[in-house]
Amino acid sequence: MGGDAGASSRPGEGSSFWFTDAPQARSVEPAEDALRRRHAGARILVAEDNPVNAEVAQALLEEVGLVADLAGDGLAAVDKALKGGHRLVLMDMQMPRLDGLDACRAIRQHRPSSALPVIAMTANAFAEDRARCQAAGMDDFLSKPVDPAALYRLLLHWLDRQAGAAG
C-alpha cells in the first residue's frame, strides 16, 4: 500500500513495531468549493413549477455562489432562456403550459448545448425518461429528490465544460 513497516526486538525486553502511511494523493477539491471559486455569480435558470422545489433549488445554488433565476412554467423558461445571460438550465419535465421536453426543444432551435446546457431535474427517473430527455436535446439528467452533492458535481462538470468551450 506504499507505506513502510519495521520492528526491533531485544530478548527479555520486548519488541517495538512501527508503521508509516504512504503520502496520500492530493485530495480532490470538493465540487462546492470549485463552484464557488470558478463560477461564482453564474446565472442558472431553474424551470420548476413547484414552489417548494424551486425554493430548494434556489437555496442549493445560492449556497455555492450561483444566482438562480426562476421560471414557473415551460413558456416562461423558453422566454428567459432565449433572452440570454444564463450559463445553464435546470429543467423540470412536467410543467404547465409547456412541458420540459417541449421547452428544451424550443430552446434548442436557437441555443445549442455548447451555448446553454439543459439538465433535466425530475422525479421521472426511469431509463425511458432519460432517453426522452436526451432525444429532446437535454444534456444530462438529475433525479429528484435532488442529492446536493450530485447536483454540485453535475453543475461543476457542465459549467467547466461550457467555460472551456467558450475560452
Roughly how many Å is the radius of gyration?
Answer: 23 Å
E-strand count: 7
Count of the separate structural domains: 1
The CATH superfamily appears as: Response regulator
How are helices and strands ordered from N to C?
EEHEHEHEHEHEH
CATH architecture type: 3-Layer(aba) Sandwich
Helix percent reads: 40-55%
CATH-defined topology:
Rossmann fold
Structural class: alpha/beta
Task: Give the CATH class.
Answer: Alpha Beta
Q: Based on the structure, what is the oligomeric state of the protein chains?
A: single chain
Stretches with pLDDT under 50, minimum 5 residues:
none
The average pLDDT value, as a whole number, equals 89
User: Main beta sheet, described?
Assistant: 5 strands, parallel
Summarize the structure in words:
The model has no long low-confidence stretch (mean pLDDT 89). This protein is an alpha/beta fold. Helix 2 (51-63) links the parallel strand 3 (43-47) and strand 4. The two termini are 40 Å apart. The protein is elongated and about 85 Å long. It has one domain: Rossmann fold (3-Layer(aba) Sandwich), CATH 3.40.50. The chain has helices spanning 31-39, 51-63, 74-83, 100-108, 127-135, 148-166, and strands spanning 4-10, 14-20, 43-47, 67-71, 88-91, 118-122, 140-143. The strands form two sheets. Strands 4-3-5-6-7 form a five-stranded parallel sheet, with helices on both faces. Helix 3 (74-83) packs parallel to helix 4 (100-108).
